[in-house]
């Protein structure tokens, strides 16, 4: 996917073929998204999510000067090119400002960090109570499902 911002680097936006992007109808793989489809865009200043059109799509091999970086933790499993610009925030208590670093730099950080996986959006509500939404949020951020007995642990 090509994000609509000025850059001279061809390789900033190289994603793994298994990477999914968020569209208004849910997560989709690269081959399910077309030019002019909308995908989620995160604004680090306002923490708002807006739907932005895909302006282009290129399927290409990695360039000679780039490699894939795997960012993996309990809550993150991403593969992007080393120069892919990532929005993140250090996990230090009280840190609210989002920052930008290339994926390789982020992987080499000794500190832990958050990558935005949600944002604020002016959208119609869902027929769920606040407690149900809170439970879903807890499960998605700190929970697991024990597949042997189907018990949810948070």
Automatic annotation (TrEMBL):
* SUPFAM superfamilies assigned to the protein according to its UniProt record, in alphabetical order: Hedgehog/intein (Hint) domain
InterPro entries found in the cross-reference section: Hint_dom_sf
Q: State the superkingdom.
A: Bacteria
This chain belongs to the protein called: Uncharacterized protein
Q: Which organism is it from?
A: Sulfobacillus benefaciens
Give the taxonomic lineage as stored in the record. Answer: Bacteria, Bacillati, Bacillota, Clostridia, Eubacteriales
